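Morning F.,

Quick status update on the modeling queue. The single chain you submitted on Monday has been processed. Sequence for confirmation:
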Amino acid sequence: MAEIPQPMPRTLWLGMGLVFGLLGLAYLLSFAEVDREHKIPLPVIGQIADFTLTNQNGQLTTLADLTNHVWAADIIFTRCAGPCPRLTAQMRSLQDLLPPTSTARLVTLTTDPDFDSPAILKRYGDHFGADSNRWTFLTGTKLQIASLGSGSLKLAAVPVKLADQKSVADLFIHSTYFVLVDKHAQLRGVFETGGDGVDWTNATQPKILATIRQLEREP
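Structure tokens below.
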């Protein structure tokens, strides 16, 4: 008798939905990658809602602290053994390539606020050579992180159920995008950082830096 297929775990369905949703978002938002030669304006994807979170130095950080700055953001967690170290190294590369005259900021959210205290985020940032004058790591309550991450920045994260975890570090399925926000707290660009066909060094990284320069030139 043929074996009756067992239903897939709910977490796996959520993860697959997240992946397909993010792929669709990446496709739609690929049109937001500006034609540098003809200076086609970037569309406004959404408005960032006000927030109050805590940075790696234990200080409160609000949306007002980033107003008048272009900023790039991603979402990680420090116990991650998957894409997070790559994402953080890529963010470090943006930090190193931004000119001293740029006022752009870098923002990293944690998906794991129960573990990622300001002190742990500080050690994590120091390990990757983060300049705290430009690069902010943010934590808060789960609701606060979800409101900014998935709500405003479209950086989704789904917890992995304990029964479905393949290791102690297999805690979340989350976005591997970088997003760009303009000086008026408007979401303006989404960039995939890894996966098949993604050339970070020669393609994606230069596009992000060019888009930051374009947004900085806007009034």
